[in-house]
Amino acid sequence: MDPIVAANLRSYTGGTQVADYLATPYHARRMADATDLLMRETRRRVSQPLIADLGAGARTVTEGLSQRGARTIMVDVGVHQPPRTASWHIPLVQADLTCPLPFRSATLDGIFAGEIVEHLFDPVAFLEECRRVLVPGGAVVVTTPNLATLQDRIRFLIGRSPRQVDPHHPYLKLHIRPFTYSSLARTFDLCGFRIVGFRSNYVIMGGGARSISSRLIARVFPSLGGSLVLAGVKVR
């Protein structure tokens, strides 16, 4: 197994860690923005889009998309089996996202890739695979931590590194390809996607109990927010 994949498996599987992480207001807002964009774009073509949730993990996004009328497929490198899986009828495909996606070309209406690209050695190859398996006009929504948040821009000005490149952080050290909005947008363009939506969840200043978060600033200036939520449609 690829050592990067193995390191991520050790950190992100087992117990309720991922579900608890996704339940926080910060990540719940990120996922709500992402699913809004994905359902809006895929429903321009079909009423019940076929959507793959890549890196489905705790299946929070899969459930949300299904409840909104999408036909969903869970894809993850590990097979997560929560207690009620036996009564859950959404198919789960086990796949390593550093390899070609296990779908025929032009078969999916939409793809959600939440907090994945920053973990990949070759995110360009990954997005090219997303383009391959999408139908013409199909949509992909990517979320990833922002390398250039407002507070990290200030940190850099005073000689401190952005948090996303901290090699000592317990989980950020696994983020090997951090993105700004401009670098992610350029990657979308190079991989054959036209950007149709861009959002962020919150702009945050400070840390811990003294942190201040603003949804309003994130809506007006999403390139300063904590998460980048970018939607694109396949154009070639």
Which helices and strands, and how do they pair?
Blueprint: H1 3-12, H2 17-23, H3 25-42, E1 50-54, H4 60-67, E2 71-76, E3 92-94, E4 108-114, H5 123-133, E5 134-145, H6 150-157, H7 181-190, E6 193-199, E7 203-205, E8 212-214, H8 215-220, E9 227-234
Descriptors for this entry?
236 residues; 9 strands; alpha/beta; Rossmann fold
Widest sheet: strand ordering: 3-2-1-4-5-9-6
Instruction: Give the total of beta strands.
Output: 9
**Major sheet summary line:** 7 strands, mixed
CATH uppermost class: Alpha Beta
Write a structural description.
The mean pLDDT is 89. Helix content is 33%, strand content 23%. The protein has 8 helices and 9 strands. The longest helix has 18 residues, at 25-42. It has a 7-stranded mixed sheet with strand order 3-2-1-4-5-9-6, with helices on both faces. A two-stranded antiparallel ribbon has the order 7-8. It has a single domain, classed as Rossmann fold (3-Layer(aba) Sandwich), CATH 3.40.50. 41% of the residues are buried. The radius of gyration is 17 Å and the shape is globular. It is of the alpha/beta class. This is Type 11 methyltransferase. GO terms for molecular function: S-adenosylmethionine-dependent methyltransferase activity. Pfam families: Methyltransf_11 (PF08241). Residues 53-142 form the Methyltransferase type domain. Keywords: Methyltransferase, Transferase.
